Structures are given as structure tokens and as C-alpha cells.
Protein 1
Amino acid sequence: MKQRISLTAGEQKQEKTRNLIEAFVSLMMVVIMGIGVNLLTSETQQIAGLLLVVISLGVELVFLLLRARESRKGR
């Protein structure tokens, strides 16, 4: 059974800021991945494109793991 925990105003602001930062980083990773995929189509810059795609996927994976860890702890 889940308990509803009421947050103070400071905690709500901190949570909102965290969510905005995560959304911004996710958006930037999508943009970087798009650039990487675009570079993959170029013959001369395939390695750079592959590196950008792998790095952006790694950052997204880290964010997902951190979020899962926080939700498991229950904060």
C-alpha cells in the first residue's frame, strides 16, 4: 500500500527543478543522438556519429538507473 507523502514548498520546488533538468538533459541527448545518426550516414564521419549515439544512449541509461534507484528507496 502506497502512502501519500506531502512535500514542503521547498521540496516541491526542488522536485520541479529536478524534473526540468532531467527533461532538458533528455532533450539534449535526443538532439545529440540525431546529430550522431546524421553523421553515421556520412562516410567520413561514421566513427564520430557512432560515438555520439553511444554516449547519448549511455547518459540516458544512467538517468533511468538513477530514477529507478530513487523510486526504490522511496526517498
Note: Residues 9-40 form the longest helix (32 residues).
Protein 2
Amino acid sequence: MALEKIVVPEFGEVQTITVVDVFISAGDKVEVETSLIALESEKAVMEIPSPFAGVIKEVLIKENDTIVSGDLIALIETTDSGNVADSFSPVEIKEENLTFHATPSVRGYAREHGIDLSTVTPSGLNGRILLEDLQTTAMPSDMRVLDPPLEDFSKYGETEEAALGRIQKISGSHLYRSWITIPHVTHFDEADITGLESFRKKLNGELKEGEIRLSILVFIIKAVSVVLKEFPHFNCSLLPGGEKILLKKYYHIGIAVDTPQGLVVPVLKDVDRKGLRQIRTELNQLSSSARKGKLAIPDIQGATFTISSLGGIGGTGFTPIVNGPQVAVL
């Protein structure tokens, strides 16, 4: 047996993140992959699994703590010496007064635009202020959308209230803000894909038994990366102030996935550098992880463009919501 440290893993672009739930306490026995804590970023809630099997000796964080990569989560007396936890150096972050729950990037946006956080109505979990909340606050009052009063429907018959899940709350809030802050114009068109479908069937016919088949979506993802290079203004973001755009020279495609927990958008990185079979494999892995609630935070970061596909349901077309701060969605 040995006493090991369990630390907050690396989250890529995310510097600080909030603890929204702690599942363990001192004395608990855990196995490898047992969920220890739940963390909330601005886009998702993720659970952190244990890298060891053993007995928790001490829990060093609590709910609502703001933490960074490298912070200690717990001390564990291990029963499996074969697993070794990664070691990270804590990142020093100078936080402001935490009376208002907001990430440093949100606080920076508030300072830049002269927004008093005390005037902002939070829509995130545990009263957290999101960037979209600030953008709504900065809108002229006559452009804001207020919740209408809700009628008492129980007078007409039996009703039941059902709580939204965490992911549903986060994605719902984000999509709502995007809908009211980004002008949406939808273009519908039809394309003859007879040749593409024949090519797809030919490639699938060459696959070995047990290999994952190529879907039409795989071809669309690859085609989008080519088109974005030709039309770079669809691969950009509008900078604060509305006077400049940020053109991105990388092509990370988000794929909207409907899961039992709610809508999530895992991201395929550097699609322009990958072949169809690699895209197919990564798409299958990310979609499976999304439905199982096993996505890591880097899996949902960095998208420059999003594809929302209802191909599995059917229909002729629909109007998706732009996944801000992106400027377009297919």
C-alpha cells in the first residue's frame, strides 16, 4: 500500500473550473474509474474518475471551490501499485472577490465593457454568471427578451414538474443567448449526391468485417473543412466591440450529439489533415463517449464551425442555432 495524491488533470484551454459536486469522503473505498467529483466549465459538467483503487484518506476540496489543473483533490491509500497518478504543477491565478460566481474570462469581459456584475442575472449552475448573461445585460432594454408569466395549467388537468439535467441547463442557456444575440439567416438547398453515395458504398464494400462503416456525415465533415479554407469568413469569430473579426487558420468541427443528458457538441480536431477513415473512427469514439457521459473537457473545446445533423431522424431541412461565438452552422 502507498499514499498517493489525486490531482486535477490538465483541461487544455480552461484555466479555472468550479467544483459542483463531491462524491467521496474520507474512509470511502473506491475503484479505478470511480467518479470522485463533478466539475463545471462554461460549456459542460464533467466527472473526474479515480486513477487508483484504494481508500480515501482525506478530501482536500469542497463544493463551489474554484480550482486549476494540478490542485489536490484527495489523498488515497492505494491497493493497486500498478497505477501511477500524473503529476501537475498548480497554476497560480489571482482571483478577484468571489462574491459573484464568474470565471476570470467573464470578469475580464465585464471590466472591458463596464458591466457591474451585481446587476447581472446569472443563468449558470449554482448562480454562476456566464458570458451570455453579460452580453444580454449589455443589450438595449428594448431588445431583451423577458420570460412571460406562466399560466396555472393545473386548473385544466393533472400536471407534473420535472427537473432539467445539468447539461440541459447549460446547453439551453447557451443556445438561448445565441438565438437572441446572433442574427440568424437560414439558406436551404438541394444537392445531387448520387456519385458520392456510389463512392461511399464502394468504400464500405472494401472494409473488413467488423470495421465501422462510412456514413454520409463523414464525407460532409471532410467537405466542410475544404469549404472553410476557401471561404475563411465562415471560420471566424466577431471580436468584442464589433469592429474586427478573428480568422482561425485551423479547422476543428463540432458535431451536435443528442444524449440522454442533453445536447453536447464534441469536437473533431484538424479535420483538414485527416482522411475519411480517421474521421469516421474519431467521430464514432466521440459520439459514443458523449452518449455515455464520458467526454473529457478538451473533447468539447476549440470548435470553429458546427454541424447539426438530423439525418438519423429524417426530414427535408431545419433551422439550427449558431453555436456562438462561431458565425455559422450547417
Note: Residues 276-292 form the longest helix (17 residues).
Protein 3
Amino acid sequence: MAQARNNWPHPLEAADDSATAAKPTAPHLKARADPLDLQREAKELLELSQSLQPDMESVNHRILPKDTIEKLKRIEKLSKRLRGELGK
């Protein structure tokens, strides 16, 4: 009876073991951002936020410099990126 069990067909094996090997998930593949890039972006964020002070004084006089909105959008983008990278 033991021989009867050995006569059952066996599943085919993959010719290339790497095809069936467990692949790391995406979070493990993503490298951390370069610390120099983070420092550069933090410096840009600081400079942009400091440049808003005169713009806000102009707003008090009912004048809005045309690049103020773009500065605010860039500040938001930089802060989200930094928060995301540092929060990992």
C-alpha cells in the first residue's frame, strides 16, 4: 500500500528557484531619502517661511504679492514631504 501512495503524480518544480522565492514587499525596497536632500529642503522651507513675513505685512495694506500663494503651496509640499520622510 505504501507503494500506491508513491505513484501519485508530483507537482512540477520551477526551473528557476528565484521565480518562486519570496520577494520583499515594497516598503522594504523603498530607500530612505538622502539626509543632504532633507537638509536642503528644510533650509528651503525656512527661507520660504521667513520670506512670508513681508508678504503678510503687505496683506495688512490690502495688497497681495502675486507669488505669495505659490510660496504657501511650496511650503505645504515641503512640509508634507519632510513629515513623511522623518515620520517613518
Note: Residues 35-60 form the longest helix (26 residues).
Protein 4
Amino acid sequence: MIMTYPIPRHAMVFLCALFLEICLSFFMVPMSQDKRS
């Protein structure tokens, strides 16, 4: 990932948190559906 302009730290933290939340939702939803069925 090439950053052409400096990104504020709070922005990077927000993006990292959002990325982790999306990844967790992708991994946790199929697992929970498998347990239900």
C-alpha cells in the first residue's frame, strides 16, 4: 500500500478498526449459521 499523502493517526485507527470489524463479520456469520443448522 503506497501512501502518497500523510494520513492522520485517528483516520488510520478508524480504517483499521473498520477493516477488522468487516473481517470478523465475514468470518463469524458463516460459523454462526453452521452452528444454527
Note: The mean pLDDT is 80.
